[in-house]
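tool_log.txt
---
The assistant was asked to compare two proteins side by side. It first ran the structure predictor on the initial sequence, then on the second. Raw inputs and outputs are pasted verbatim so the downstream comparison step can read them without reformatting.
(1)
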Amino acid sequence: MKPQVIIIGRPNVGKSTLFNRLVGKKLALVDDQPGVTRDRRMGDAEIAGLQFTIVDTAGWEDEDDLTLPGRMRKQTEASLEGADAALFVIDARAGLTPLDEEIARYLRENEVPIVLVANKAEGSAGESGVLESYSLGLGEPVALSAEHGEGIADLFAGLWPIIGEKADAAEETADYEAEFDEDAPLGPLKLAIVGRPNAGKSTLINRLLGEDRLLTGPEAGITRDSIAIDWKWTDPKAGPDDDGEREIRLIDTAGMRKKRNVTEKLEKLSVADARRAVDFAEVVVLLLDATQGLEHQDLKIASLALEEGRALMIAINKWDIAGQGGHDTPSGLFNGIKAALHDGLAQVRGVPLFAVSAKTGKGLDTMLSAAFELRENWSKRVPTAALNRWFDDAMEANPPPAPGGRRIKLRYITQVGTRPPRFVIFGTRLDALPKSYERYLVNGIRAKLGFDAVPVRVSLKSPKNPYNANKGGGGNYSGGSDKT
């Protein structure tokens, strides 16, 4: 494994900006207000060939453990366990604060090697803060500007004596495995958990991991960044010749409220980050709150996932308290949500629906097993011969209409892509083909070819007449017009 380096410091000293600089991407949300980061975020970092895993953490605050800032601090403390080094970041322009000194005392009591980083040291404004930081007793500070990229070479010099040997060993191991491991498993299932605020997304992931990896609590909107966590799940239904170990990349996302209710800049950034997480997922789990049922916003989130071509499944969380304080029985609630989904998601029928409990673990193994099956369907390719046999049978059972007495001719179909499955139908007079017939074909693809609730894309393509706008002639059709 690559060496792991933790970034620690009080709020608003530029930890997330440094994280983004080291990973080379704007992965972590950055804003002027303190306390933007709440959960640990990991990324692959590299400085002059030195490769390591960098971990961004929440700002360290001196608050009671039961408060939100206190719980954020406990998450940061937990991140030090197993770390190979820590970057203690201070704000050189603001100078040392009592909180900086308290963090330094805590770090000196731990065995993790510390590299002191004086950020925002560009220009003369940070000189006094850099000199002042020597008093912390953590050695010579690395003066840098995470925003402008200044001083990163000095950071390399501070980290190399601590993690250089382990980084080299990890790189050699990775090269060996890449060259010789012919039976390397497929990539992990990218599973994004989405939903409205306080549906229990972070709690569900913590339950799966068996640890309090993500910050949770009664406050709505705790999660801000989309956090990806690599994890191995053991399938209880695996056969005797299968160890059942499945790789999953769990992606926690910020809660998505109605657009008109999102007014603050930071929440807009969080929702945009959640949308990007959906783009990179393979299977999306929409988590509902059993105590609130299905709302219009849930259908909008589901539609977003389907529009992006992701495989969708829906889980009703808090099933252990379903029906309490209300008139609906659990079975009535389940059937009611199922019927509402049938009406509200007309573009995909039969989306998998599960009753789960992040608190007790009910239904989570069943949900994960179904997610792998759904990804398999989402990635499936149908042989052209079998596809056109189905196509011929579908047209024989229900021929295309003949508006104005002129029949629409559908010649053949081919699959042009997967993830999601994409098909192109070739024919003539396709502009006149009714939407109802298109739906008939899409529903047939799902029902007869095993795509079930997977979003399917079908495009219609008509050949152009080469004599209409081309110079010369030629007997071959070229180009085409699309109708999707």
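(2)
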Amino acid sequence: MKSRFFIVAFLMIIAYQPIWAKIELPNIFSDNMVIQRNEKVLLWGWANTGEEITIHTSWDNKEYLVKTTIDAKWKLEIDTPGAGGPYKISFKGNENEIALKNVMLGEVWLASGQSNMEWSATTNKGIDNGEEEIENANYPNIRFFTVPRRTSDFPQENIPGSWEVCTPETMKDFSAVAYFFARRLQGELDVPIGLIDNAWGGSPAEVWTPKSVFDAHEDLKLSAEGLEETPWSPVSPSQVYNGMVHAITPFKIAGTIWYQGESNRGRANMYGKLFSEMIHSWRNAWDSQFPFYYVQIAPFNYKEPEEGVLIRDVQRRVMQTIPNSGMVVVSDIATIDNIHPTNKKDVGLRLANLALKETYESYEGEVYGPLFKEVNLQWKKIEVIFDHADGLMFTDKKETYFEIAGADGVFHPAKAKIKEDTVILTSKEVKAPLKVRFAWDNVAEPNLYNAAGLPASAFISE
């Protein structure tokens, strides 16, 4: 009887031993990683309760001591210097030591969204000049971390994956938009660039948005709960955020690039609020007002009238209300019969130019196409005033893509005349125009540009 008691007691002791008997790091910390330069960054992980851990950083030859709390977790905030590497970080405890090698200090960007962000040089038909781009993708100062697809009902503290150096072999299956974005940044800034890719093809914005948003907004919650199941992406609210985003929110980033919206067509009336709240929630989770740059979805021949252009107009409006955000228009490099345009290079370059100008202040060129500012009613005509309108021009005057409406709300094609940053519109069918819309069609590829060769965004006036 006594022996049986001791056996049971021994098994209970084993069962209640701490889970983290050794130091463990989240997978976002690995060899080849990039850590944000010139910042206060967080190092964290797990170990035995009360264990003292010694952390050594080779860039400054400093040693730090941190003790694990009662929940078997530890964290340490340190200051990072300017860009450089390769460096080494070591973590030493009672049972083991972990040494991370080939660590760089530079700029870290998160690349997220749905299939057009996920699209790689080898996905289906690939990208323009794919073989050549793959062959030349030797950039040791660009590093990739791909977050595998995961869903969860609850926020996760870790994700699978590890950092990889950019080579033809690693680049070919990585986000092409993110790769071209990083290549441009790295070439211009001459610092290491780290990319975290956590896109999921076909995903609606609801799955990327944390539960706190839906708890606070009943209308968004009801809309999200009504999503229909699809064969290509989960639709349960917050599941992808829980499985693919939450675990990396303590990891300091410079900013986010985003390409998504196609899967929210049909719900444009909710998308503006949802997208805005999602951006706010991510910034709150990271405790940082980082820049959020995104791609306006491209023209495509959707079966449902106006669903694509409605989303494009919502995305334009969101940019005007969210500080430190920006949007690139890609209507001129779209393919209306293919929802996945293969020109990913120009998309990445436009995002990079946006970051270089607004985040790094190292690019002097124009990064926006003409953006609707306001209308000026002139009885028989209506004047449309644009921002970013230097050198405003039509590349083809046969069709202007402008329409105007009077009090009856019926839109008619308009004749257009450019005067500096203003387009003056008239129509024989509209005696007293009150409203204007531009490129208001799913497949419209408008011909209004500025001197930088960037296209105007679709819009409808209030």
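---
observation on (2): The chain has eleven helices and 23 strands. The two ends are 84 Å apart (CA to CA).
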